[in-house]
Write a structure and sequence with these properties.
It comes from Pelagerythrobacter rhizovicinus. The protein is α+β, with helices and mostly antiparallel strands. The chain contains ten helices and eleven strands. The longest helix is centred in the C-terminal third of the chain and has 17 residues, at 294-310.
Amino acid sequence: MERAPSPFERPEWFALLAESGIRPFIALAEDSEAKAALALTRTNGRLEPLRNWYSFTWRQLAPEGSRAERLLAGLARDLRRQAHRVTLWPVPDEDGSATRLERAFREAGWLVTREQCDHNHVLEVNGRTFAEYWASRPGRMRTTLKRKAKKVEVTIRERFDAADWEAYEAIYAESWKPEEGTPDLLRRFAEAEGEAGRIRLAVARHEGEPVAAQFWTVENGTAYIHKLAHLESRRELSAGTTLTAALFEHVIDRDGVALVDFGTGNDGYKADWMEIVRPRFRLDCLDPMQPRAWPALAKRFARRLAPATGRG
């Protein structure tokens, strides 16, 4: 069985989303040699990706090759009988996904706009040790770690630990992070990742008090940074920096990953740790043959005309 390219394309992930209340709409096509699928849901009067805010990415579930391309185009054509609008995001293109989907929907008769909707910060390890990587970080980060690392004790677990997860939830609740709608889903995901040995659950403690926590996973040579939080009330400890550095050392030197993925978002601190920024795209597909699509198409054309009509 072919391995999923990320945690967010496994059947177990889609099942968790369904359990959280998101109703799946799976479009599937196959022939004697290939299969292609789009994991979608009906919402906001259109078809959208089967995902939530924990998902780093979304893409087609299809192998490479001309047969799969024909199946994707066939799926896109069939979806015109299901919806007047299909909006897909956040789609990567370093693997050609955004280009493949845009081409498939255009060939099927949809009018497609493609625009960048997010950023993805990553680190390509390129065979470096943690020490070699760390030597290239900004001097203020290296100075902070040297001064503050001894102020906290760090534990990193490769199996789910209920006490450490409760510590993470307590820290998150008091951190700068916004409240989330389905924390139970994240816990179930963490438990499953722990059972599979993919979890990296880390907590930093100061004099026995948990002050920072992070939830990573590792698979297929990639470390995924899912969640991180620290107590604002103990910010002077710089426990988040110490904990992140410890996890980078763990996944680089012990797990031997080739890539570290910091998910979506263009927060300034991510650039301190990462070296590459990859775009994430939104594809908005409208069927011009359906009257329900005409108001949105009119707005789209009006936006395109505005810069031209505004020039004197």
